[in-house]
Amino acid sequence: MHRFDDNIKKALRDILGADNVTFSGDELLCYSYDATGKEFLPAGAAFPATALEVSEVIKLANRFNFPVIPRGAGSGFTGGSTPVRGGLVLSTERMDKILSIDSENFIATVEPGVVNGDLQHEVIAKGLFYPPDPSSLKFCTIGGNIAECAGGPRALKYGVTKDYVLGLEVVLPTGEIIETGTATMKGVVGYDLTKLMVGSEGTLGIVTKTTLKLIALPEATRSLLAVFNSLKECADSVNKILLSGALPSTLELIDGVSIKAVRTYSDTALPEAGGLLLIEVDGDSESTGREAALIEKVCRAGGAVEVRSASDKRGQRELWGARRAISPSLKNLKPDKLNEDVVVPRSNISALIEGVGVIAEELGVVIASFGHAGDGNIHVNIMIDRTDPDEEARGLKAVEEVFALTLKLGGTISGEHGVGTAKVPYIRMELTEEVIALMKNIKKLFDPNGILNPGKIFN
Amino acid sequence: MKNLKEYIPDLDRCVRCGSCRGGCPTLGAIRREWGSARGRLALIRAHIMGNTVDTAVFKKHIKDCTLCGVCEVACPNDIKVTDIILAARAELVDKEGLPLGASLVMKGILDAPKLGPLALKAASKFQKLLGSKEGKSVLDRFKMPYMPMGGPERSMPKLASTFFLETKEARAYKKPPSEMPGGIADGPVVAFFAGCAVNYLMPDLGLKTLELLAKHGARIVVPQAQACCGMPPLSMGDMNTAKSLALKNLEAFEGLNCDYITTPCATCTYGIKETFYNTLSGEGPEVKARIDRFAEKVRDITDLMVNVLKIESGQVTSEAGIEKRSVTYHDPCHLARGLGIRDEPREIIERSGVEFREMKNPCRCCGLGGGVGYSNYELSSAIAREKAERVSATGADILATACPGCMIQIKDSLDTNNVDVEVKHVIELL
Question: Which end of chain A is more exposed for a tag (fewer CB within 10 A), N or C?
Answer without folding.
Answer: C
